[in-house]
Specification:
5 strands; elongated; five-stranded mixed β-sheet; 34% helix; 4 helices; alpha/beta; 181 residues; single chain
């Protein structure tokens, strides 16, 4: 009669004679139940950092506009292709909205992501030194071109992201230092 050698610690089914007698699982090396990857708080830091960099590079929810010069804007205005323009006084920027039928005419100058139809604008923008100097330039332009109607307005834009970031960043830094130290 043949007997199994005594040094074999597993029976014919592959179950260990000592300890855990569960059936073998494919890919299991017998070192206990398999655990998934652990969550790391550094992933949250990486996501927050990526969002901050994204807002810094692309701006919060801005549409793409083509940068132009003030002289080019006046040429487009003379051609009658401007629906309206808005002077953003707190940023010293003028945003230009083209007429829908004129967007195709300036497609080469406009950004690549701007479609020919369905875009409400703004389509172009340019920086100004100050609102008063731009107002004087436009007053002179309209005096030289009385047939062109003034379609401009003045507005301000609030930057909610920088305000909230300036409030939350010190709090987050204090909490982060408190947790790490």
């Amino acid at each position: 009669m043949s007997q199994e050698p005594s040094y074999n610690k597993k029976d014919k089914l592959g179950n260990s004679r000592f300890g855990n007698n569960r059936p073998p699982v494919p890919g299991d090396d017998g070192q206990g139940p398999r655990k998934g990857p652990k969550f790391s708080i550094y992933w949250i830091y990486a996501i927050i950092f990526a969002v901050l960099i994204g807002f810094q590079l692309f701006g919060p929810f801005t549409t793409s506009t083509a940068p132009v010069e003030q002289d080019y804007f006046q040429q487009v205005l003379k051609a009658g292709d401007v629906e309206k323009y808005v002077v953003i006084s707190n940023r010293n920027i003028v945003k230009i909205y083209l007429k829908k039928e004129s967007i195709g005419k300036y497609q080469g100058k406009l950004e690549k992501g701007l479609s020919k139809t369905g875009n409400e604008g703004p389509h172009m923008n340019f920086k100004i030194v100050s609102g008063d100097s731009f107002k004087d330039d436009m007053r002179k332009f309209y005096a030289d071109n009385p047939e062109i109607k003034d379609v401009g307005s003045v507005d301000t834009e609030s930057d909610w992201f920088s305000k909230s970031l300036s409030f939350l960043l010190p709090i987050l830094l204090f909490v982060g230092l408190w947790i790490l130290l």
